Amino acid sequence: MKNRKPYDGIKPFVILYNACNVVLNTYFMVTFLSKTYVGGGYSFICQGINFEARDENTMSMLNLLWWYLLVRISDFLDTVFFVLRKKYSHVSFLHVVHHMLVVYNGCYGLGYGPDGQVILSLIINCFVHVIMYTYYFLSLLGPTVQKHLWWKRYLTQLQLAQFTFAFVHMMVPMFMNCGYPRVHIYVMLCEAVFFFTMFTRFYRKAYKDRKSPSKDYVDSSDLKSKVQ
To answer: What residue intervals traverse the membrane (predicted)?
Structure first.
């Protein structure tokens, strides 16, 4: 691999991959909403977990969350694309740890209770991924489209807003007893603080500290290593 040229011929596959992620994350976002807050009677303020529930909606949610975990595992293809295209600098600490923790969260949740308060943050995360993968898809369509992608920095701001909301929303069960496990709260709060810190560091380095202006768009693989 060291002496080989970058595999830039995989670009059509990457475009298809990004398009599929837009569709899949949209599907999960809409379906999660229909089974919880829109049609499932969930509380936006504080939602516990009924570990004894075996009704149709609960089992359907578990099945849906299992498939969602598989999609998040497939996100490791981002790293594969970086390596094949020899964009090694994009395989950053934030990129690797983020993907690992997402998969860990999925496995932990399915094993010890994926439902409850965290679902709203998961739905918002699906929405964020729809926006992100839409950007990645458009950024690979050439200069004609790229010149209109002036909103790159707002993707990171959206991520920071997501982590802030996740932290505040996850604090609610600390003060309201709605049957949501404390250990789940501690795990999510720690991760929200960690990611907010890491993404803030990236944002300052990329947009606040740079001395010279750059283009309003970037290669999708470059952004994925930092924003996803």
So the answer is: 12-33, 65-84, 91-112, 118-138, 158-177, 183-203
